[in-house]
Amino acid sequence: MESRYYDPEIETASRDELRSLQERKLKAIVQHAWDHSPFYKKSFQEANITPDKIRSLDDITRLPFITKEDLRKDQETHPPWGSMLAVPMEETQRVHMTSGTTGTAIKILDTAQDWSNFCHIYARMLYAYGIRKTDMVMPVFSFGPWIGFWAGWYACQEIGCLLFASGGMKTEQRINALATYPITVIGSTPSYAIHMADTARKNDIDLAKKSRIKLSWHTGEPGAVIPGVKNKIESSYGCKAFDFLGSTEIGPWGYNCEFQSGVTHVNEDWAFPEVLDLETDEPVGPGGTGELVLTNLDRRATPFIRYRTRDIVAVTDRSCPCERTLFALEGSVLGRLDDMKKIRGIIVYPSRIEEIVREFEDVDEFQVVFKREGDLDEILVKIDPVPQLDLNSLDAFRDKISQSLQLGLNIRATVEILEHGSLPRWGHKAKRFVDERKDIPF
Ligand SMILES: [Zn+2]
User: Fold this and answer.
1) 294 and 395 share a domain?
2) Cα-to-centroid distance, 129 and ligand 1 (Å)
3) Are 219 and 429 in contact (CB under 8 A)?
4) Which residue, of 280, 312, 338, is where some domain finishes?
5) 262: CA distance to ligand 1 center in Å?
6) What is the pTM of this model?
7) Per the count of CB atoms within 10 A, which of 50, 132, 179, 276 is most buried?
8) If you measure from the C-alpha of residue 134 to the centroid of ligand 1, how many angstroms do you get, rounded to a whole number?
9) Contacts with 24 (C-beta within 8 Å, 6 or more apart), sequence order
10) Ligand 1 midpoint to CA 162 (Å)
């Protein structure tokens, strides 16, 4: 019988087995960083730590944290690759860049082995969703410097899938490919999946009927865990949609499996997780919420040791029907420290606003503006409705959204219904949230 697991010896390992593997890998990466990365040597010296002091996994807390800002500064001071680079240039094989939605783009280099490890872990996640060698896959992606679906491509190749490249294609050409070929899987940002389905609909093509897609995976934005977005993608394509948790810095680190039980399995043999209390930085246990700090154990060109992801997550010991023994989170990433907004003293997560607004089927697109009127912070939610919305029911529609926001956020938001088509349809890293306030709390 076919195994449910891609790496059974890891995905069902005992805690002791995992711990000893992690310990061995941690010692090796710390030694490697000390020996070859001027950045880490300096930072370990400043923290008065040497590799021989890392004797067990618990000693990880003696190592200093790093942040995206540290990396950005390092690359500015030592252009273009930074002093963090821990291998000779001739050993590097790939460079990828963060999308640079905030600040300058960060460059991340990989050796051939790093990249092969990266793609293997990616394949483990795709396999857990249910992707098999019998599938035909189209990553709907431009294949630019963003790491996005690059590794997904190689991961599918490792599984043995048939791959269809759609990099330079227009949306209409991609839709045509989906209607023509037996493509069973797509990978894209959630926004683009919705945009492509809407475009198909405008051309009278129902992709749920015309395509053979059974599964989709999404990254780049948190959309696929927002019930409204997930439902929209699933009904538009007649598929099961999966959220892919990963970043350019750390790589693929978390996934939900075929059961979609709400448990996120963490690839802890690849990315060692710590979840730290938001106030004290002390580790939290099952039931606790904190910032996810990850150490990549298998990437040598640009090592990431105790990287503060700014992602807020909740630890769980709830088991999943798949019986994986890996470290688990309840739900997905709950919010981003960077994204948290303080409005009239209340913490508001933009993702929560999106969740509420997307519950309404008559919402086609939306934008949220945080602004200050006099001394008071305001949330303005602009709604771009579907074209068939009954114009006589606009007031009732607006009131219903207002009430849901008030209930869900514990704070009043102003809702404005625009004419259909007033807002742009955003692609990758949707800019749906604008903060117009000059001095932002936090
Ligand atoms: Zn599972």
Assistant:
1) no
2) 9
3) no
4) 338
5) 8
6) 0.81
7) 276
8) 22
9) none
10) 26
